Amino acid sequence: MRKLVAGLLAGASMLVAAPAQAAPVRPSDPGFAAQWGVTQTRVDEAWSSTRGSSRVVVAVVDTGVSPLPDLAGRLLPGQDFVNHDADPSDDNGHGTMAATVIAASGNNRTGIAGVCWYCRILPVKVLNAKGGGSYTDIALGIRYAADRGASIISLSLGGSDDSPLLRDAVDYAETKGALVVAAAGNRGVSTPHYPAAIPSVLAVGGITSSGSRYDWSNYGSWVDVTAPGCNSAQGPSGVVGPYCGTSSATPFVAGVAGLLAATDPAPSAAQIRTALTATRVLPSGRVDVPAALRALPIDGDVTRPAVAFGAVGTLVRGRVTITAAASDQHGVSRVQLYAGGRLVATDTTAPYSFAWQSAPNTAAVPLELRAYDRRGNLTVVRRNVRADNAGPAVQLTVARTMRAAGARPAGRTVTVRATDPAGVARLELLVNGRVTARKAGATGRFAVPAKARSVQVRAYDRAGNPRVVNGKLGG
């Protein structure tokens, strides 16, 4: 029997605004400023280690998906089970919005940043222009997606009745290795919603920017995780706008599942599901993406972590703070700093920072960062700096100056020449203990008043080391 069900468009109308927050990865997409869900779930932190992979296919079983620049090169040929053809174009907008939440290209100055930048989208049209469809077409769409290698199947749809037809399709997808993710529904009740309530399906509810459940989001023990219920998305025209409902939370989680699927070694659907549910933030059940990544099995992981020096000059002196950025798909266990082949310190938590006493070195010093992931994979990066902890050498000559026509002396002049392997930054003249003149560079000539009781020259090298030399004024 064909059972007609409505899509979830009726509940997809609310928008709760939230300010953008600073993030470890902040893409250039103009719509990113409104994507509060990315920072809430720490997707932006996960982006430092994974942004998806083209090997991961996410099927959007919905109203179809229209081609957009933000999906260019990653929108696969699909199928239309409503009109029975191979053109899964979107005549509603719902499916395209879901697809962009999942996989809009990030950091391309266009539209929004999807959760899984490099995942590919398989469009499967099972809902008509009004957002309605049948269990039969939905089941066919699930099977079609599974047969075409979808790692994740996203279903922003459902109905109130259970169905052997849907259960069989979900079981079939599971045997093919796919994780089925479905919307919990938008009636604000605890009554099970299908196919989300099928035990092997990952059921998704919607939460606000403050972490509370949206009033319209269905709830209950059958809901596995929650995710931001209002997200920026792009419709078929490419215009960015609010997309709300468990219809929106579902593709968000599907994108997160895509990030997990892109890791090495490739996890199974069951492992992805377990990682997402075991690390959810209680009591809301919100997904925590970095935590989920760390929860994946690491046996067989051969991907080394990424590590880089923070801002550090090529010339240093005294006590120096060395910072590092490190990331890994399954988590970094520790970062170590070596100087001149000797271990300086180990840091096990981000942000990674080390205090290195460069003194008494005045020489080139090789620095080395060693980053280990949880599996023990090692990455080493090196940088040479020059430690300069000695002031410049200074030659100083004091000479009398005479008035015109051989008159008595009017004062003195000080001629200075300073040298340093790293270069001399500036010279200062001190008369009677006070700075009276400054000059950039390594050489200079200064006038000294006739009544001066003492004169000194202070030279600074480029590292900031000073050297003070006293001048002899004589009689």
TrEMBL record:
Belongs to the peptidase S8 family. This is S8 family serine peptidase. Coiled coil: none annotated. It comes from Paractinoplanes pyxinae. SUPFAM superfamilies: Subtilisin-like. PROSITE patterns: SUBTILASE, SUBTILASE_SER. Residues 1-22 form the signal peptide. Transmembrane segments: none annotated. Residues 54-280 form the Peptidase S8/S53 domain. InterPro entries: Ig-like_fold (IPR013783), Peptidase_S8/S53_dom (IPR000209), Peptidase_S8/S53_dom_sf (IPR036852), Peptidase_S8_Ser-AS (IPR023828), Peptidase_S8_subtilisin-like (IPR050131), Peptidase_S8_subtilisin-rel (IPR015500). Keywords: Hydrolase, Protease, Serine protease, Signal. The active site is at D62, H94, S247. Pfam families: Big_7 (PF17957), Peptidase_S8 (PF00082). The lineage of its organism: Bacteria, Bacillati, Actinomycetota, Actinomycetes, Micromonosporales.
